[in-house]
Specification:
By secondary structure, the chain is an all-alpha fold. Helix content is 65%, strand content 0%. The protein is built from five helices and no strands. The protein has helices at residues 11-24, 28-35, 39-52, 63-93, 103-106. Helix 1 crosses helix 3 (39-52). The radius of gyration is 28 Å and the shape is elongated.
Length: 109
């Protein structure tokens, strides 16, 4: 996660900045300086936009695919936790019945 001092830019602002880089013919650093944005941030926005447009390197995930992967990993983690809880509950309740209790009293009615 980013620090509490990290600036947050709206999606619209990012789109406009990316469009400016693409249409102006200037370098990312020049555009970033003009906008008052970190050059590395703008470079990352442009790179992410290229991947989302299908122009990225083979195997790179689009933003939608990244979001889906994040969601699936969260679901997987939750399911693993549920499985662990159920294993512990099963192990806890599966102990032997005491021998001193007659059979007819061991069976709940």
């Amino acid at each position: 996660m980013g620090s509490k001092y990290t600036k947050r830019y709206s999606a619209e602002y990012r789109r406009d900045a990316i469009a400016l880089v693409r249409s102006s013919g200037r370098t990312v650093t020049e555009v970033a300086r003009e906008l008052g944005v970190s050059p590395e941030s703008l470079r990352n926005w442009v790179r992410r936009d290229q991947v989302d447009r299908g122009e990225g390197a083979p195997g790179e995930l689009t933003s939608a695919e990244r979001e889906e992967l994040k969601c699936l990993r969260r679901q997987n983690r939750e399911q693993q936790q549920t499985i662990e809880i159920l294993k512990k509950a099963t192990a806890f309740g599966s102990g032997p019945l005491p021998r001193s209790v007659p059979v007819y009293q061991r069976i709940p009615s």
